[in-house]
Amino acid sequence: MRWWLRAGVALLVVVLGAEVGARALVERTDNPALRWHDHTTALKVGQIEQLDAVDVLVLGTSMAQQGLVPEVMSGVDGVGTTYNAALNGGVPVVMEPWLIDQLLPTVSPELVVWGLGPLDVSDVYGDEVLAAYRSALETRPGALATLDRGASAPSLLMRERTVLRSLDDLFGVAADRRLVAWQDAAADLGPDGERVDFRQAVDEVRAREIRGRITPMELDRDDLAALIRTTQQLQADGVMVVFVRMPLPDRFTELFADPSDPLRVDAALERLAEELDVELLESDEVFAESDFVDFTHLDAAAAARFSADIGHQLADLHE
User: Fold this and answer.
1) Domain residues for 243?
2) How far is residue 77 from each of residues 25, 69, 80, 115, 243, measured CA to CA in Å?
3) How do residues 193-239 score in pLDDT, each as one tens digit?
4) In the structure, how many helices (H) and strands (E) does the chain have?
5) Structure pTM?
6) Region 34-48 average pLDDT
7) Which residue would you say has higher pLDDT here, 3 or 94?
8) Mean pLDDT score, 283-302
């Protein structure tokens, strides 16, 4: 046997042995590597891969992810099967590639419902999430990233290489931290992509965090441009788009440096909806401070009421 053939066979045996060993180790830990920008997104990808059909797709940040409940919306006659594809920090510049590159190749919605609020268009919010999204193994751009995803699809050794590099990543403190992150994400994710984190958080630390996301409140040109591009592409593909103004508690609006800031945001969204010929829906119900678990997210009962209201408005649009 020629030397190069022997070397090739030996290399193949080594690679196959490594692949078998990797599978045994990873399957034993049941604690895979994170290849998306956060654990919730990774879990959502698994949900989306199991979907048979989706009539309505929800987009937006965690406000829409928690406030628009698919089971409630789908329960309204005329709405159809709904999935909540909103993401934590899912501002329009993140929603655009998420929708175009990841969702539409898998699902074909008839309607996209985009929940919007000040955080979606704030110039000082969303950059870190976008950077994380662009650097994740499954979503980073470039030829090398494409080759990596191609090789990782059939090979668990390639896909899980970041957790196979040390015993700590497999069985130690790093593995424990990763497992907790997976468990926390799973606990906060409903069966249809909705967020179900109803922990109270109205302390000053959370208030400073939210204030930092809207101060100064300038409209982000990149987010507005992404919102326009994505909406127009969907419309060109025959997909109906509806904007939904997400409710906010007074404790949120009181954090604005300028009392006119929320009015400017509302005016910008109304103007954009008119320019794009998109309906801008909002609930007629007034939500009290007690209907929110923090500064932005509805509690379970209020989210159900809000979702039912929006669901009926969507049904009316089809009549």
Assistant:
1) 36-144+191-318
2) 48, 15, 7, 21, 20
3) 999 999 999 999 999 999 999 999 999 999 999 999 999 999 999 99
4) 16, 5
5) 0.89
6) 94
7) 94
8) 96
Please state the rounded mean pLDDT for residues 82-99: 98
DSSP labels, 191-226: TTS-B-------SHHHHHHHHHHSSS--B-HHHHHH
Amino acid at 4: W
Spatial distance between the Cα atoms of 188 and 198, rounded to a whole number of angstroms: 9
The residues, any chain, with a CB within 8 Å of residue 258's CB and separated by 6 or more, are: 217
Helices (H), the chain: 3-29, 39-49, 62-67, 70-74, 92-97, 118-121, 127-135, 143-152, 156-159, 167-171, 173-187, 204-213, 221-236, 250-253, 261-276, 300-318
Q: Is residue 25 assigned to a domain?
A: no
3-state secondary structure of 165: coil
CA 237 to chain CA centroid, nearest Å: 22
Coil, strand or helix at 245 = strand
Token pair for 288: 């009290």
Beta bridge partners, 122, equal 219
**Predicted confidence band at 16 (pLDDT cuts at 50, 70, 90)?**
very low
Pick the closest to residue 48 from 9, 105, 122 (CA basis): 105
Q: Decide which of 166 and 130 is more confident.
A: 130
Is position 180 within any domain?
Answer: no
Fill in the amino acid letter for 27.
E
- Number of domains present in the structure of the chain: 1
Whether 219 is covered by a domain: the verdict is yes
**Residue the block writes with tokens 């409630």:** 72
Question: How long is the chain?
Answer: 319
In 3D space, the residue among 219, 233, 220, 191 whose CA is nearest the CA of residue 99 turns out to be: 233
Residue owning tokens 């007074």: 250
CATH number at residue 131: 3.40.50.1110
